[in-house]
Amino acid sequence: MKKLDFTTQNKAAHIRKKNKDFLDLLDVATKARRGFVGEQSRLVSRPAKESATQILRQIDLINNLVSMPHLLLVAMEGRVEGLKGAFLEMLGQDAKKRESQKRKLFEAGSKQTMRHFFSLDAYMRGGLSSPWLFAITVYTWTAFECLAGDLWANSLNQGTTLAQKVLTSLPNETDGSGLSRRHIEVGLAAKHNFDLRRSLGTVLRPKFDFTSFDGISSAFEQAFGRCEELQKLENSLKELEQVRHLIVHRGGIVDDKFLKISKVKVRRNTALRLSVGQVRDYIISMTLVCVALLHNVDGWFASNVISSKPSST
């Protein structure tokens, strides 16, 4: 393996493009975080506000993962600049002028820092970027999955008419879970002190699959009706689901099942290679659908204030 020349490699067109794609990814992740904070302030219902607080923690994890290699490299370069600054100070250069020049150089240079990362990654044949992008992808699906499950359950706990609507969709006979349309086992009721008015969402949640797009879509349609944004982003979210499953269960190695259900163009028994642009699009889709679900739920509670209150009898 030949020696890596950063000076030459960093100027390569494909490295410059990857650096630009990273800046786009960083911008999207940052705006997603800010956007969720803004949307949270507009929410009025308790289920939506509580769920928004939870997903902000997931968004922070995604932001930290996206920016981690960049921050590490910037910090390392900062130390080098600090040594240069100390040397120039010994030579008697004006401190204010030097700080201004250093700030401008740092701002310009920090935007190019990830060229070092992608140059080394190319040298290592994806050994740096693959686990990094895999981790971001897994956390992105997890954010959607957690938001959907928590928001749905919290909504049914708060809105008894929603819970009753979902409950009537269940089979007549229990499937071993202790719950059916007509029957609640004593043991299950006892776990909630025989008062399920604020627990029906929690009790009903295991009856639906919140680990897949189809399961999430079905659960929300049962309770709230069709969500247009969820359907509009179906292809992107299903791809995210499939890629996440391949990463978690196959270490990213493509199998026949993935080839059969996925539209991603890859070969069997090869390692999946994600691009920065793909991961950026996953974050965008996750952000849009989570905001849409929050506002759909918030809108339902705004229109059903009276019916969402539990009966006193």
Please explain how this structure is put together.
The protein has 313 residues and is mostly helical. The chain has one domain (10-303). It has helices spanning 6-9, 13-42, 46-90, 95-110, 114-123, 129-158, 160-167, 186-191, 200-204, 213-224, 228-232, 234-250, 256-261, 276-303. The mean pLDDT is 83.
Task: Provide a concise account of the structure shown.
By secondary structure, the chain is mainly α.
Which consecutive residue ranges, at least 5 long each, have pLDDT under 50? Answer: none
Number of DSSP-assigned strands: 0
- Return the average pLDDT rounded to an integer: 83
Order of helices and strands: HHHHHHHHHHHHHH
How many domains comprise the coordinates? 1
Proportion of beta-strand residues: under 5%
For the sheet with most strands, the description reads: none
- What gross morphology would you assign? flat
Helix- and strand-based class?
mainly alpha
Q: Please tell me how large the radius of gyration is.
A: 25 Å
- SS summary, helix count: 14
The residue fraction in helices comes out at over 70%
